């Protein structure tokens, strides 16, 4: 797990808007910066993305083509997010391996990621055998190989010549000869190698892409944006059978509760996004912990507590998502200040975040967990009412839940049923 670098390290949350304040937030982040921020939290920003962006530019790619290669480079091993495929990825050879297929299946239906998905599917393809594949595949392969040739224990510049040599030796066989020539030119500068070893590689990749004029914005309040956040929810949830549909359930509850609270249409869409992304930081929590068939130990719980801290920092540094970050990641804060990790209380917790908190608890209680069966909705509401009476969560939100229980529970069930179908389909690999 990696904590955000470069950003603030203390309790650095934005001041929350006053409860009741009608504030329609902007939510038009750059597709790229959102993915970069997620990838950074997952330690997925390897030099692969940096090498891929430099090579793509040298090869004359721009606009969406350039963006696709770099996004594919960032997510190329996203198929290894589950434990099983992670192990397989370690043993990969230059064949069309399972992690490429998982990566492809994961990304192919996400809006704006279709082209990147086809590149991920063949990121270990040999040029000598499959020169006809898109240039992006060959860029990814070369970039990936540079990364694996670098010995992290040696000083970077001491090995520059060896790595360049090893790549050149496979020109025409593993790698596209023209790309090898471009790589030689790039690798001739010391700064390139210092960049590769830099702890700020994420900002370097971002800098490469910010100048890209064809970079796409993504409005999370639109259908595409909602689909996109649902895709990220899949990344989060599919790591465990027990959480496979959790974020979808939370998102559906959020919308139902927000509707009852009279939130405006745009806010309903954005609170759905917050529901999808509320557990984003769990991507950085080891799968063993999420799947543990029993109560977490104190120290495991401490690790688990980092998830909302990470959710906040991943989202808050993406321009346009500052408000959604608060709504999504305050869901373990409690009105009396006893929640985590920021210890916010009362008016510091905006109404939308209070809704996400109730939606999260309600969904968690009414779904199966590794260590217990699902609770009946009425019993769950009873528990929530006790929590509200104890000053932990918002009693009006719990009141709305109780009043609309039948419909809200139905909406949650339906959303989770649909998500379960997608989950089953995802793991049915041919
Ligand atoms: Fe790979
Ligand atoms: Fe959570
Ligand atoms: Fe949750």
Please report which band the strand proportion falls in: under 5%, 5-15%, 15-25%, 25-35%, 35-45% or over 45%.
under 5%
The termini sit apart by 32 Å
Main pleated-sheet profile: none
Q: Name the shape in a single word.
A: elongated
Walk me through what this model shows.
This protein is mostly helical and 430 residues long. 58% of the residues lie in helices and 0% in strands. α1 (31-41) runs antiparallel to α11, α17 packs antiparallel against α18 (322-329) and α18 crosses α19 (351-365). The longest helix is centred in the last third of the chain and has 23 residues, at 405-427. It starts with 30 loop residues before the first helix and ends with a helix. Bound molecules: fe (ii) ion (FE2) (3 copies). One fe (ii) ion (FE2) binds next to α13.
Provide a compact summary of the structure:
The chain has 430 residues and is an all-alpha fold. It contains 22 helices and no strands. The radius of gyration is 23 Å and the shape is elongated.
